[in-house]
Amino acid sequence: MGTLESGATLESVAAAAGVSRQTVSNVLNAPERVAPQTRQRVQEAIESLRYRPNRSARSLRTRTSRLLGYCVQPAPEGAINPVLDRFVHALTESAADHGFHVLLFTAPPGAAGLDRYAELLAQRAVDGFVLSDTVVADPRPVWLTEQGVPFVAFGRSWSGPDHGRWVDVDGAAGIVEAVEHVHALGHRRVAFIGWPEGSGVGDDRLAGYLAACSRLGLTPLVERDEGGVEQGRAIAGALLDDPEPPTALVCVSDLSAYGALRAVAERGLRPGADVAVVGFDDTPAARLPGVELTSVSQPIEEVGRDAVHMLLGALGVVEPPPGPADHRLLRPTLVVRASTAISPEG
């Protein structure tokens, strides 16, 4: 059944494309089953006739919603998270490619939020969930596994055994590459500005820093903050005021790195020439003139695609992706800019 606006039906699309009604249904619901040339011909007919499947009618037939639930976690006032913004965009775009949509909802963090997940399941509002912002002792993966609910997480479980499927970025590997980069430029006093102990993501990145220092023969120098610009500025300032200051600052996030850049400038020092600064996340401001922050870039679009593919594989909609069925760890890349462009001797 099509929309009232277009008047097109599954049968009229099939006639226009010269295929069977079942082939049109396969293009809409399981496109991987249809040959590329045939799929393109059907898609052209769909666009030409402005056919729009009636999701409500299809849900009644299949008892599925073709909706994936995604919880938008509350953020501190004034805070932005470009990484999760990119992830949500990649998630919704990839889901749409397979005829699914993403249902956004909010829930309190921790165990208090599980009732919201239970409500959506009781209403049959979603076919599965995509999680993000996973933290140490996060109750959601365990609860969803116990309920037998299909889900995939952007992020590991961080405590105890892994539950369910996840896609994540190897933060430790990204920081190792950052430390190796500044070491190759001649820096030997390399400090790390991290998050408070107990942050799964932050501890993972710290582990990469410590591993790189051990392998390269560097003395670790670790300071922690809450991750904001002002906190990074204060921590970096204290480090730079030391009688033997570091010549390179590797930061757990771009926000901390922006604060570090400010601390460097306030002391009349030059980023890259006097003090190297590296961030993590490659946020949009990193490439601005006057900032030009070297940063570790996460493959967020790939994370979104893989998350959808893994979840739809669990739902039996698509073939599971190649490789490990339940877990995938993606490697980030270091984007080098002016904040590390010159060695201490240069």
Could you characterize the architecture of this molecule?
With 346 residues, the chain is of the alpha/beta class. It folds into 3 domains: 10-54, 434 Repressor (Amino-terminal Domain); 67-167 and 300-324, 3-Layer(aba) Sandwich (Rossmann fold); 171-298 and 333-340, Rossmann fold (3-Layer(aba) Sandwich). The protein is 42% helix and 15% strand. It is built from 12 helices and 12 strands. A 6-stranded parallel beta sheet has the order 2-1-3-4-5-11, with helices on both faces. Strands 7-6-8-9-10-12 form a 6-stranded mixed beta sheet, with helices on both faces. Strand 3, helix 7 (139-147) and strand 4 (151-154) form a beta-alpha-beta unit. Helix 1 packs across helix 2 (21-29), helix 8 (171-184) packs parallel to helix 9 (200-216) and helix 10 packs across helix 11. The longest helix is centred in the middle third of the chain and has 17 residues, at 200-216. The protein is elongated. The N and C termini lie far apart (69 Å). The model is unreliable at 1-5 (pLDDT under 50).
